[in-house]
Structures are given as C-alpha cells and as structure tokens.
C-alpha cells in the first residue's frame, strides 16, 4: 500500500488552509483592510472574530491556520477553489486562451478572490458593461454556462442570461395557477410577512397579487441553478424565500422599498448581516410574461 502526500490529493478544507497560510506569509500586513491596525493582516481578514463570523453548515470542518479560521477562495466568475489541480488547470487555460482573447479581462495570471470565513462570494463588478461568463454553471439551455452583464456597480445590478427557459417559466405559471393553499395561492399582496407565505398585512404601498411556489421540477431546477450561480456551497431552502410570483395589472405597483429586512432582531431571527446574522443577500428577478406596448418595469436606486 502506497500513501501519497501530494497536494493534489488534499480535500478542499486543507487546500483553503494552505492557501490562507501562503497568502498570510507573502502579503504585506497592511494590504487587506483599511480599518485594521498595522499588525493585522490577511489572517485577520479571513477570521473576523466570533461576533462577525456566521456559522455555516461546514463550520466544524474548517482547518484553522494557527488559531485563525481560513478564507475561502474563488475565481472572478465565482468558481470555488477546492483543489490544487484546479489551480493548475486554471493557469494552463489562462495561458492557452491569452493569444486569442480580446477581452480587457484576459490575463495570463490566475486571479483569486478571498472570502472571509462564514461570508459569501460577491461578483467583483468594477464597471458598467463588464461581463462574467460562468462555464462551470450549466445554464437553462442544458449546454452553455450562465453569463452576467453589469448594469450598475452601486447598487450592484446584473443582467443574467440563460438562467431560465420557457418550459420552466410555463411550469412556474401553471403551478401558481393551480395552487389552492391560502398562504401560497395568488392573493392580494402583503408586506411584512414571514418567509415564503402570504401572512403579512395589506398596504397601500404595494398593490397587485402574489403567491408562492416552493416545489415542482421547474422550480427545483431553477433554484439549484441560482444557488450554483451565487457560489453557495450548499443549496438549502433555509437560505431562500422560494419563488414569489407577482401579478400586476394596470395602475398596480410596489413603490420604492428596501428588499432587506430592517426590522429588529428577534429570539428567532438575527438580521444583522454585519455580525453573525443573515439578511437578504441577493434578489433574483424573472420577467415571466411580456406586455404589449408600454408598461411594466423595475427601477433600482
């Protein structure tokens, strides 16, 4: 029996720890944060401390660097680095594609993005019109990957291609039309309800109807695709609202509002995402029908 210690056989947790340790030893101590003292460095960026580190499903699997939690590492497109073999392949592909590439983002270098323990990857949008191609996430056509185009950097707003297909749209519409459960069927829109149900209060700020779809093949396929696009390590209903299907007729709308929860923390929910809590990380919008002439739209500010 032969035992190998080649780094290509390390699991992702050891890979994260080794990369974290490597960057910690090579980066200047002042390169990772503007609000830390000079003696702080990359390890303090990776481990934000117990009051600011959300506990994810695999928290106990993390391999510490000294007494610090490691970072996770992603490519610009949100591909999580889980092996050293990936790094080798990324480097080879970068050099192979350089000669034929005209995109301003092309480079022979492999750019990695470090994410603090317990935190979530965010696409590094830097200018309007920038594009992100995700060949590692199979798109709605079953062949090609997803692509994102930056529409705004603040707020961070993307147009996403190949995320949903017509069959999946039809499935969602058929499912909501057939729904009879009082908290999920199409009903006058509410505000302030709990996750995934029509159990809030009526408001003049929001008109129209909405309902919820939580199951069905189309919903599950699209939901998993969204989780993969956003580089979630694990797809879970606990971190999503489900599909809220909204129907607006003429004169109906939802006036400017905040999509994150601004209510106080409770014994059940901690909304403080700057600490250990969770809040609305992303809103994904699908237009399921077209309108004739003018009308319908969404404004972000």
Overview of this structure, please?
By secondary structure, the protein is α+β, with helices and mostly antiparallel strands. It is 20% helix and 14% strand. It contains 5 helices and 8 strands, in the order ααβαββββαββαβ. It has helices spanning 12-26, 42-46, 84-98, 166-178, 217-229; strands at residues 72-74, 113-115, 131-138, 145-153, 156-161, 187-188, 209-213, 243-247. The strands form 3 sheets. A 3-stranded antiparallel beta sheet has the order 3-4-5. The radius of gyration is 22 Å and the shape is globular.
Give the ordered list of helices and strands. HHEHEEEEHEEHE
Major sheet: size, sense and barrel closure? 3 strands, antiparallel
Shape annotation: globular
Strand order across the biggest sheet?
Answer: 3-4-5
pLDDT averaged residue by residue: 85
Query: From the helix content, strand content and strand pairing, which structural class follows?
Result: alpha+beta
Q: What is the alpha-carbon Rg in Å?
A: 22 Å
Number of strands: 8
Number of helices, where a helix is a run of at least 4 consecutive DSSP H or I residues: 5
Helix proportion range: 10-25%
| Low confidence ranges | none
- Give the DSSP E fraction (strand runs of 2 or more residues): 5-15%
Give the terminus-to-terminus CA distance: 62 Å
Question: How is the secondary structure organized here?
Answer:
Layout: H1 12-26, H2 42-46, E1 72-74, H3 84-98, E2 113-115, E3 131-138, E4 145-153, E5 156-161, H4 166-178, E6 187-188, E7 209-213, H5 217-229, E8 243-247
Antiparallel strand pairs: 1-2, 3-4, 4-5, 6-7, 7-8
Helix pairs in contact: 4-5
């Amino acid at each position: 029996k032969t035992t190998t210690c080649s780094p290509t056989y390390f699991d992702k947790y050891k890979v994260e720890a080794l990369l974290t340790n490597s960057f910690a030893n090579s980066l200047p101590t002042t390169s990772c944060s503007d609000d830390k003292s000079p003696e702080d460095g990359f390890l303090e960026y990776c481990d934000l401390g117990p009051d600011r580190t959300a506990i994810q499903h695999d928290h106990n699997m993390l391999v510490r660097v000294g007494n610090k939690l490691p970072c996770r590492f992603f490519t610009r497109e949100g591909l999580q680095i889980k092996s050293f073999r990936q790094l080798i392949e990324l480097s080879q592909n970068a050099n192979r594609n350089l000669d034929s590439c005209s995109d301003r983002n092309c480079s022979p270098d492999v750019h990695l993005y470090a994410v603090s323990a317990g935190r979530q990857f965010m696409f590094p949008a830097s200018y309007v019109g920038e594009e992100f191609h995700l060949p590692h996430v199979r798109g709605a056509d079953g062949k090609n990957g997803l692509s994102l185009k930056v529409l705004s950097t603040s707020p961070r707003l993307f147009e996403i291609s190949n995320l949903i297909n017509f069959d999946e749209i039809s499935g969602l519409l058929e499912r909501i039309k057939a729904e009879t459960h009082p908290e999920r069927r199409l009903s006058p829109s509410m505000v302030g309800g709990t996750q995934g149900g029509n159990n809030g209060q009526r408001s003049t700020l929001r008109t129209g109807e909405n309902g919820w779809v939580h199951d069905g093949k189309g919903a599950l396929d699209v939901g998993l695709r969204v989780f993969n696009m956003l580089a979630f390590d694990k797809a879970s209903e606990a971190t999503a609202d489900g599909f809220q299907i909204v129907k607006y007729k003429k004169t109906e709308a939802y006036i400017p509002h905040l999509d994150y929860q601004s209510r106080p923390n409770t014994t059940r929910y901690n909304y403080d995402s700057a600490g250990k809590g969770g809040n609305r990380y992303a809103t994904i919008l699908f237009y399921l029908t077209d309108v004739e002439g003018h009308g319908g739209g969404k404004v972000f500010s």
